[in-house]
Amino acid sequence: MDARFTDEQEEVRRTLRDLLDKRCGPQELRAAVDTPAGHDRALWTALAGHLGLPGLALPETCGGVGGTVTEMALACEETGRALAPTPLLATAVLAAPLLLALGTGAQRAGLLPRIASGGLTAALAVPGPALAAALALTGHDRRGQWAGGGRAGGVQARRAEGGWQVYGQVDQVLDGHSAELLVVAAHTGGFARSRVLLFLVRGDAAGLTRVRQTALDATRPQGRIQLRDVPAELLGDEAADALSALARLGGTAAACLAAEAVGAAGRVLERTVEYVGQREQFGRPVGSFQAVKHRLADAYVQVQAARSAAYYAAWAAAAPAPGAETAGSLALAQALEALRRAAAEGIQLHGGIGFTWEHEVHLYFKRAAGDELLFGPVHRLRAHAADAAHVFEEAGT
Q1: E strands within the chain?
Q2: CB of 261 within 8 A of CB of 226?
Q3: Beta-bridge partner residues of 181
Q4: What are the Cα distances from residue 172, in Å, to 78, 101, 184, 224, 392?
Q5: Could you say which DSSP state residue 226 is in?
Q6: Which of 195, 84, 101 is nearest to 141 (CA)?
Q7: Which residues pair with 233 in a beta bridge?
Q8: pTM for the model
Q9: Which one of 1, 279, 324, 344 counts the least CB within 10 Å of its CB?
Q10: What is the DSSP string of 38-63?
Q11: What's phi and psi for 54, nearest 5 deg?
Q12: What sign does the CA torsion over 86, 90, 93, 97 have?
């Protein structure tokens, strides 16, 4: 394994960081999260037009750049560093890979070039309290019980004249209130022969009601969607194995999320080190005290270890390599823990301004807490990885 990044990969990182430094400062971030969409449309247009970011991991035949999970993870590290308010995660990391994996030729040709150009945003809507269950990050449910099931609960799909209709509600959909296309997981086949399939729902479809939810992390907007006999198009065909596709997506999504968390952790740690070098107490910089040095050194080691794990998870998902099925979960657990540690140290070491609404450090702490609620918790990520690797099984069983 060559752990060095290529010149092209380093250019992706460098160019994206330069653009975000110019276009995504604290004031721009706060202004974007207060908009109805919750993200900066002008920034998204710039990222798509100048860098091709939405199509970074899509093949060139679909209008993309032709990169891999590694390039997307590096991009997510930079967007996480700035807490960039964009639909990158929902559109490019969660929805687009499913369209590529399961879509018919016509669906891929009609949707993926529009996503790659930034002209179409998408969101993945899976019923249940946590996205982690659907992505098999905290367990592998081969029957899709996370989606509700039975005659009630979750989202149901039934055949209608000329296609399909879906009915139900999903409460936590990343960018679900603003995405122009929804990829909805729904039960079909009734109670006895129920199975989960994925459906495409237009954002302006009749019978669809959407509202933005109040989220702990305002930089990660969520929406609640209600579907009342909404016209839908089956993604792929009825033979498609949606549950396996979602489980495969979990590994790549976890690698990108881990890189994003590492970027955020590194940035909040940088800001904290800079601050304690300037703030004085008892006539000397706070950062000169040994106790402060030790705390920051421990946080730094944790962030660097999480960065290595995130890079390996991205490489393993792109290869794919042995252990790729657990590398994502472990890297995400380590990265979320590092971000929570770095953000907590940042709040404390910034002193009286660290916990104020006006300072940005609390946004990083909320990102750590919000991501753990959505994709964790950390102990379950690690427990699932241990189960998948048969760590606690006795020999011969």
Answers
A1: 122-125, 155-160, 163-174, 181-188, 195-202, 208-213, 222-234, 280-281, 284-285
A2: no
A3: 122, 202
A4: 25, 24, 12, 6, 33
A5: E
A6: 195
A7: 200
A8: 0.93
A9: 1
A10: SS-HHHHHHHHHHH-GGGTTS-GGGT
A11: -60, -30
A12: negative
In degrees and rounded to multiples of 5, residue 164 shows phi and psi of -130, 160
CA distance 396 to 322: 22
**pLDDT tens, residue by residue, 129-179:** 668 888 989 876 666 666 665 445 689 999 988 889 999 999 999 999 999
**Nearest residue to 312 via CA among 337, 300, 298, 329:** 329
Identity of the residue numbered 191: F
Look at the chain and count its residues.
397
| Token digits of residue 326 | 């657990």
Classify strands 222-234 and 280-281 as parallel, antiparallel or unpaired.
Answer: unpaired
Q: Are 349 and 295 in contact (CB under 8 A)?
A: yes
Lowest mean pLDDT among 13-27, 54-68, 151-165, 335-349: 151-165
* Contact predicate 142/112, CB 8 Å: no
Reduce the DSSP state of residue 143 to 3 states and report it: coil
Amino acid letter, residue 132 = A
At 262 the three-state DSSP class reads helix
**Would strands 122-125 and 181-188 be described as parallel, antiparallel, or unpaired?**
parallel
Q: Which two tokens stand for residue 307?
A: 């960065």
CA atoms within 13 A of residue 371's CA, in its CB half-sphere: 32
Q: Which two tokens stand for residue 188?
A: 């079909």
Please write the tens of the pLDDT for every residue from 47-101: 998 889 999 999 999 999 999 999 999 999 999 999 999 999 999 999 999 999 9
Could you report the per-residue pLDDT of 113-142, keeping only the tens digit for each? 999 999 999 999 998 766 888 898 987 666
Burial of 198 (0-12, 13-18, 19+ CB in 10 A): buried
